[in-house]
Amino acid sequence: MTNETDHDTSISKELFFRLSGTGKGIWETNRSQPTTVQLVDQKRFHGEVLDIGCGIADNAIYIASHVNNINLTAIDLVPRAVEVAGEKAQKENVNIQFEVVNMLDDLSKTNLKHHSYDVLLDSAIFHAFSNDERLVYIKNLEYLIKPNGLYIQIVYSEKETRDTIPRRVKKSDLIELFSSQHGWTIESIEDTVYESRPDSPLAPSVQAYLSLIR
C-alpha cells in the first residue's frame, strides 16, 4: 500500500553519482548527524562496526574520533564519495577502512564477503529503496550482521509534511519488514530528525525514525 508520502520508487544511482562527494548532496553537512552523536553518547558502537552508505564520512569520522577499541569500516557505492571520505579521515587522523560497495549487489563477491559486524549503521539509506530493493537490502543485512548484532536505522519518516525525495518510510512497514517472523527483533522505533545541508530545500532537518533492531 502507498499514500502521498510513500511511493514505491527508488532513487536512481545517477543522482548519487552526480551529487555524492561534490558537497551538493543535501546529506553532505560536514558534521555528524545529531542522532549519531546521541548514539555515541549511549555507547551503541562497539567491536566491528559498519557504516553503510557513509557518503563523505561525516558520521564515520565522528564515531572513530569518539569511540575507542572499535574496527570501523565505511562503505558507499560512489567511488568519489569514498575518495573524499578517505581524505577527510586522513586529515582527522582516524582509522577507518573504506570500501566501494553497493548494498544491492551480491556481497559474497565484494570485499565484505568474509566479514560480519556487531553494529550496522544505516543513516539515511533504507529510504532510498523501492519495495523490491528493500528485500534485497535486508537479505544483505542478514548476511553481514553477527548473532545478536545491532542494526541502527535512521530514515525519513511519514511524519514529514514536505515532499521529499527519497520516499518517507511508514512505521508499519518497518514493523512488518523487521518482524520476529522474519528473524528480527525491534528494540525501539523513535522519532528523531535528519539534518540537511543548510542551503537545501529540506533545511534545517527532516522528520525521521530512529530504529534499533536485532
From TrEMBL:
Pfam families: Methyltransf_25 (PF13649). SUPFAM superfamilies: S-adenosyl-L-methionine-dependent methyltransferases. InterPro entries: Methyltransf_25, SAM-dependent_MTases_sf. It comes from the Eukaryota. One of its GO terms (molecular function) is polyprenyldihydroxybenzoate methyltransferase activity. Residues 49-149 form the Methyltransferase domain. This is Methyltransferase domain-containing protein.
